[in-house]
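Sequence design from tokenized structure. All designs in this work follow the same two-part layout: the structure record, then the generated sequence. An example of the structure record is given first.
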């Protein structure tokens, strides 16, 4: 059979069906975790005593074949933002660079080690929607919300970075790596200069293996100099 004669999968549902189902699965426990839902941009936000959490759920359309669901988490602390503004003002290209932590769907591998296939699975039909929706609901409830709780204060963030010294490097985000250093400075529990050297060495390895943009090294240097 000629390849041109093969039929493409037919999309069985509309975007509003996908959005409604995901809200049905996530709205209840997100509300219990004090997140407010904004239907206009399909995001959840909450304010803590010293921080703010924002989860944006993104629907990528490949209509009329499929949809994909992605998300972005931003955690904001005013003290960290002020420091980042002091050395990022001339190199900022988007507001999200000033947040304390930024993570994407890929940064949450899921409860099940086999969930990689689900995370990258396009939604063609209701069966796909049920699988992706269930994965998303479990990830938000059991991983993302507890993570936001861990990052609710500078002291808690510093404890997290101390217990997970490679975490910021593994996110491959220059902004997260700078936050690691800034939090060490603000909480005054870790040696700033030693941590800077550790992060620079980790960056060197990531850059050599082409896992992170070389500009992250310059960004960390600017961050370190601003903390002197």
């Amino acid at each position: 059979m000629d390849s041109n004669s093969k039929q493409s999968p037919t999309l069985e549902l509309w975007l509003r069906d996908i959005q409604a189902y995901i809200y049905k699965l996530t709205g209840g426990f997100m509300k219990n975790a004090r997140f407010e839902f904004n239907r206009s941009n399909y995001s959840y936000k909450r304010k803590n005593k010293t921080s703010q959490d924002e989860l944006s759920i993104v629907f990528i359309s490949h209509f009329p074949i499929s949809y994909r669901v992605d998300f972005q988490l931003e955690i904001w602390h005013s003290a960290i933002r002020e420091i980042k503004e002091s050395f990022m003002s001339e190199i900022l290209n988007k507001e999200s660079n000033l947040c304390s932590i930024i993570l994407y769907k890929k940064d949450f591998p899921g409860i099940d080690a086999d969930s990689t296939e689900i995370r990258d699975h396009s939604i063609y039909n209701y069966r796909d929607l049920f699988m992706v929706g269930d994965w998303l609901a479990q990830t938000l409830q059991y991983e993302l919300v507890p993570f936001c709780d861990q990052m609710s204060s500078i002291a808690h963030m510093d404890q997290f970075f101390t217990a997970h010294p490679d975490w910021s490097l593994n996110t491959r985000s220059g902004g997260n790596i700078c936050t690691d250093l800034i939090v060490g400075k603000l909480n005054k529990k870790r040696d700033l200069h030693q941590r800077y050297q550790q992060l620079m060495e980790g960056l060197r390895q990531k850059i050599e293996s082409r896992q992170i943009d070389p500009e992250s090294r310059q960004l960390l240097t600017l961050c370190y100099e601003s903390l002197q």
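Confidence is low (pLDDT under 50) at residues 1-8. We note this feature because it recurs in several other targets discussed in the main text.
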